[in-house]
Amino acid sequence: MTNPVTQKKSLKLLFIAPKGKKDSKTNQKPLFHMAIGVLVSLTPKEHHIEIADEHFEDSINYDGDYDLVGITSRTIDATRAYEIADKFREKGKKVILGGLHVSFNAEEAMAHADCIVCGEAENLWATVLEDVSLGCLKPTYNAKDFPPVTKIVPLDYERIAQASKREKVDGSKSIPIYVTRGCPYECSFCVTPNFTGKLYRSQKPEDLKRQIETAKKVFFKAKSKSSKPWFMLCDENLGVSKKRLWETLDLLKGCNINYSVFFSMNFLEDKETIKKLVESGCNMVLVGFESIKQSTLEAYNKGHINSAEKFSQVIEECRQAGLNVQGNFLVNPDLDSFKDMDDLVRFVGKNNIFMPIFQIITPYPGTKMYWEYKEKGLITDYDWEKYNAINLVIHSEHYDPIAFQHKFMTSYYKTYSWINIANRVKHNPYKLLNLITSLAFKRNLKEQLNTFEVNHNIRTTRSIK
User: Fold this and answer.
1) pLDDT value for 2
2) Under a CB-based contact definition with an 8 Å cutoff, are residues 191 and 205 in contact?
3) Confidence at 7, pLDDT banded by 50, 70, 90
4) CA–CA distance, 297 with 305 (Å, rounded to integer)
5) What is the crossing angle of helices 205-219 and 242-253, to 10°?
6) b/e 264-283 (16+ beta carbons within 10 angstroms → b)
7) What per-residue confidence (pLDDT) applies to 1?
8) All domains of the chain, ordered by start, with CATH?
9) Furthest CA-CA distance within the chain
10) H-type helices in 91-230, by residue range?
11) pLDDT tier at 26 (50, 70, 90 boundaries)?
12) Strand order in the sheet with 282-290
């Protein structure tokens, strides 16, 4: 006879992706949060799962009969995650918090949860579910106490589709997928080395092809016979070894998809790699250029290999081959002046950079930069909702924070002037994609800038067209 005290039961689970109040509005968001996709795929079939994603305005059923509510959180979402968690706990529900922010702010998160998970969940999630079933959930589960994660969990797209509220989409909305995980590099402003780790892992080719085909079946609705689904490769760094990269691109070529991906600048200097990217269906690569100022690049330990001239050359070579290059640039009050921002706006316009992203340097919890800035007392604001890379949360020796943020936001907005958008659409491949994304960015940036000026009583005679 089974002892009722130790008998495991089927669980009803709710996974929530919260949205911070100051998170940007974008039409580039993937169909589901990857951390939740991994948890769904790890959870045994006997358990029932529901997903609520606030990035898609899903409602949250606080009165649901859930055995466990799991909430994953980035830093910008943390405050909202805690609000949701507190409300469920008031109703007597068990809440578990995890994700990037929680993993590096365990003590803070503990006040809002029955349990917290630190680090990757792949090798600890089965233990968590078993303990919930047996009624002996522990307050903390840390990936460091379990075997290291050495493999990528294949995503169960059918189950994710069933658990989420997403309908099928055309090629203008992205389906997320992992090809690789981890990154061997240690950029001070990146959280990857301390969360996912430096161990580089790759999907098995047969697993990757099977996932792509399943994802197309459950999430893609073709507008025409020639239309393709758009996959967002969520890899931290797809290109580490050229040999392995080319093998992956050859595999993707046979999958009949379009995709976007974070990509290393050094691989784009190879014309054969660019050709393989285009042939395999890549329509855009996001590249962390960081800066066009040589002294700033040197401060980031990138000046010996990169320069503004090299960036321009690579962007043009990619454009001629049919590949959009999305540039990501960091603005640092200790290294960059107002004139440097003006120079950056001109550089973006001159090179017709696809969907440019500007970010104020931000020490996110879990990064080497965060620990260094915190130790030196340079972090001036711990309001996590401001950690969206458009707010200055660190001490500046040279600028008033409000003036610096305003200059940053107006500079960012200028990159989406009508003339810049027109030139972007005229010169870049995938013209409709350039137009749609540019209009969305322009609208969102204008809204953020107007709100900032109202909140800080800034009057302007802006003439940005």
Assistant:
1) 41
2) no
3) low
4) 9
5) 40
6) bbebbeeeebbebbbebbbb
7) 36
8) 12-145 (3.40.50), 157-456 (3.80.30.20)
9) 80
10) 100-104, 106-110, 125-134, 157-163, 205-219
11) low
12) 174-177, 230-233, 258-262, 282-290, 324-331, 354-360
Tens of pLDDT, residues 211-220:
999 999 999 9
Q: What is the dihedral of CA 158, 160, 161, 162, to 10 degrees?
A: 90
How far, in Å, CA of 58 to CA of 209, rounded? 30
C-alpha dist (Å) from residue 260 to 28, 231, 281, 322: 11, 7, 9, 13
Q: Helix, strand or coil for residue 258?
A: strand
pLDDT in tens, 391-441: 999 999 999 999 999 999 999 999 999 999 999 999 999 999 999 999 999
Is residue 20 within 8 Å of 77, Cβ to Cβ?
A: yes
Model confidence at 154: pLDDT above 60 = yes
Average pLDDT of the chain? 93
Specify whether the CB–CB gap between 352 and 424 falls below 8 A. Answer: yes
- H-helix or E-strand spanning residue 315: helix 308-321
Mention every residue, 6+ apart, whose C-beta is less than 8 A from residue 437.
Answer: 27, 28, 354, 355
Model pTM?
Answer: 0.92
Q: Could you tell me the CA-to-CA distances from 56 to 164, 177, 246 in Å, in that order?
A: 11, 18, 35
